[in-house]
Design a protein that fits this description.
Layout lengths: L4 E4 L4 E4 L8 E5 L10 H21 L4 E5 L6 H10 L3 H18 L15 H13 L3 E4 L2 E4 L16 H7 L14 E6 L14 E3 L1 H13 L2 E8 L3 H15 L5 E8 L2 E3 L2 E2 L10 H6 L4 H9 L7 E2 L2 H18 L9 H8 L4 H13 L3 H10 L16 H19 L3 H13 L2 E6 L2 E6 L13
Parallel strand pairs: 3-4, 3-9, 9-10, 11-13
Antiparallel strand pairs: 1-2, 5-6, 6-7, 7-8, 11-12, 14-15
The protein binds adenosine monophosphate (AMP) and zinc ion (ZN).
Length: 456
C-alpha cells in the first residue's frame, strides 16, 4: 500500500501517516457557520479535506474512514441576521445548511459521514464544561464559564507556536473583570432577552464556539483520533482552545494526532472573507455558468499549504482542460486510479502534482486510467468527465435528510421506517455503508433523484 505522508502543524514536519486503527480512520474538520452562502474561501477547506477523505477511502477502504464536519448553528452573526430580518434562527440555519450541502456537492465533495449541528450537542457541551470545572481547568464567574489557561500553561500555544505571554502581548483579547487571566476564553456565556439560550448550572446561556468542536469530536470520534483539519486562520485561537479543552477533559486520550491546515484563498493579496466584503460565493460562480468541476479543478491546482488567488484565467484554463480530458475519456469506464497519481497525491496531498500526472495520462490517451484518476480527485462527481450526467444539487440535501431520518428511526427502534428509507435510497441508486460509527453514503452511478421524492 502507498504510504501517505502529511505535514503535521503540531510538529512542523511532514510525517508518515499511521492511523490508530486502520479499520476506523477518523478525521474531524471545522465546518461552516451557517448564516449566509459559502464563499470560495470556505470552499477551499471543503475541497482539500474531501480530497484527503477520498485518498484515505482509497487506501483504507470506503467503509473504514469516518469524516466529521460540524455545522455551527449557534453564533452571534446568526443572531444578528435573525434580528435584522425578523426570521427565526432555525429558519436561517436550516436554509443556509441546505445551501451549503448543495453548493459543496456541486463542486464534487462527498457528504461527510457525520455533519453534527451545535444545537443538537448543547447537553454534551454543558457536561464537558462541568467536567472541566470539576478538574480545576475552568471556573464560573458572573453567568459565564471560562477556561483557565494558567491551569494548562505549559501546553497552551503549542500548535500555533506561541507562549501565553506572546499571546497576551499580540492578541486583541477581551479584557473582562470576571477573567482571572485576560487569555481565559469563554466556554459558556449568559443569554438575555430573546437571544437563544439553554438552561445550565451557570444560568440561562449559550456555549462559546470552541467547546462545540471538542464536544462533537469526542462524541463522534472518541478522545483520540487521527486527523483534525481546518483553515490556517483557525489555528489560534480556535484550535488551540479545542486542544486545551479536550486534553484537559480527557487527559489520557491525546485528542487529534495529525493537524492539517489549508492556506487562505486571497483576492488581490488579502484573505477572501465576509467581513472584508471581497468575496465571491460558489453559487455566484455556478450562476455565471462556471462548472462545479472547474471550480474544484482550480482549487486543486494549488497545493493546500500555499496561498492562492482566484482569477478568470484559472477558471477558463480549468474549463478547457476538463473539456479536453472529457474528449480523451469518451465513453470509457473508470479504471483503477493510476499508481503514480496515488503516489503523488499521497505526498502531503500534492494535488498540483496529481493534476500533472492526469495531463500525462491524457497525452498518452489512457482513457480508463484518466477517468479513474480524475474520480480519485473528485473531478468525476456531479459532472462526470466520462458520461455527462448532472446530479440535481437538491439530491444531496434530500439524501442527507433521509439518511438522518433513518438514523433517528433506528435509534428510536422504528426499524420498519428505517428499512423503508434504506429501501428507497437503494432503489434511487444511493450506496449506504453502515459502520459502528454511523452511516456513510455516496451517489452510485445509477443515482436517480426522481425516485427519492416518494420516500421524502
Ligand atoms: P467560517 O464559516 O468562516 O467559520 O469558515 C469555514 C471554513 O472556511 C474554516 O475552515 C475557515 O478556516 C475556512 N476559510 C475561511 N476563509 C477562507 C479563505 N479565504 N481561504 C481559505 N479558507 C478559508
Ligand atoms: Zn472547530
Amino acid at each position: 500500500m502507498t504510504t501517505i505522508r502529511l505535514r503535521n502543524t503540531m510538529t512542523g514536519r511532514v510525517e508518515e501517516f499511521t492511523p490508530i486503527d486502520p479499520s476506523n480512520v477518523r478525521m474531524y474538520v471545522c465546518g461552516p457557520t451557517v448564516y449566509d452562502r459559502a464563499h470560495l474561501g470556505n470552499a477551499r477547506p471543503a475541497v482539500v479535506f474531501d480530497t484527503l477523505f477520498r485518498l484515505l477511502r482509497h487506501a483504507y477502504g470506503a467503509d473504514h474512514v469516518v469524516y466529521v464536519r460540524n455545522i455551527t448553528d449557534i453564533d452571534d452573526k446568526i443572531n444578528a441576521r435573525a434580528a435584522e430580518t425578523g426570521r427565526s434562527i432555525r429558519d436561517i440555519t436550516d436554509e443556509t445548511a441546505a445551501w451549503y450541502a448543495e453548493d459543496m456537492a456541486s463542486i464534487g465533495n462527498l457528504a461527510p459521514t457525520h455533519q453534527p449541528r451545535a444545537t443538537d450537542y448543547v447537553p454534551r457541551m454543558v457536561e464537558m464544561i462541568a467536567d472541566l470545572i470539576g478538574k480545576g481547568h475552568a471556573y464560573a464567574a458572573e453567568g459565564h464559564a471560562l477556561f483557565a489557561v494558567d491551569s494548562w500553561r505549559d501546553h497552551y500555544g503549542k500548535l500555533s507556536g506561541k507562549s501565553v505571554k506572546d499571546m497576551i502581548a499580540g492578541a486583541r483579547v477581551e479584557v473582562a473583570p470576571y477573567k482571572r487571566n485576560p487569555m481565559d476564553f469563554v466556554l459558556w456565556k449568559p443569554s438575555d432577552g430573546d437571544l437563544p439560550g439553554w438552561d445550565s448550572p451557570w444560568g440561562r446561556g449559550r456555549p462559546g464556539w470552541h467547546i462545540e468542536c471538542s464536544a462533537m469530536a469526542f462524541d463522534l470520534l472518541g478522545g483520540n483520533f487521527d486527523i483534525h483539519g481546518g483553515g490556517g486562520d483557525l489555528k489560534f485561537p480556535h484550535h488551540e482552545n479545542e486542544i486545551a479543552q479536550s486534553r484537559c477533559a480527557h487527559p489520557d486520550a491525546g485528542f487529534a494526532r495529525y493537524w492539517l491546515h489549508n492556506e487562505m484563498l486571497l483576492v488581490d493579496g488579502r484573505k477572501m472573507s465576509k467581513s472584508l466584503g471581497n468575496f465571491l460565493t460558489v453559487r455566484d460562480l455556478l450562476d455565471q455558468g462556471v462548472s462545479g468541476g472547474a471550480v474544484r479543478f482550480a482549487l486543486l491546482s494549488t497545493h493546500y499549504r500555499k496561498p492562492m488567488d482566484w482569477n478568470a484565467e484559472k477558471r477558463d484554463a480549468a474549463e478547457e482542460t476538463l473539456r479536453r480530458w472529457r474528449k480523451v475519456i469518451g465513453g470509457a469506464d473508470a479504471g483503477p486510479p493510476d499508481p503514480e497519481v496515488v503516489r503523488v497525491l499521497s505526498d502531503d496531498l500534492n494535488t498540483a502534482g496529481a493534476i500533472a500526472e492526469l495531463h500525462r495520462l491524457a497525452a498518452e490517451g489512457r482513457a480508463e486510467a484518466l477517468a479513474g484518476s480524475a474520480a480519485l480527485l473528485g473531478l468525476a462527481g456531479p459532472e462526470p468527465l466520462g458520461r455527462e450526467r448532472a446530479i440535481d444539487p437538491g439530491g444531496e440535501a434530500l439524501v442527507g435528510k433521509l439518511v438522518e431520518e433513518r438514523a433517528a428511526a433506528r435509534k428510536a427502534g422504528d426499524f420498519a421506517r428505517a428499512d423503508e428509507i434504506r429501501g428507497a435510497l437503494t432503489a434511487a441508486g444511493v450506496r449506504i455503508n453502515d459502520t459502528a460509527e454511523g452511516s456513510a453514503w455516496e451517489f452510485g452511478p445509477e443515482f436517480d433523484a426522481g425516485k427519492l421524492e416518494e420516500a421524502g
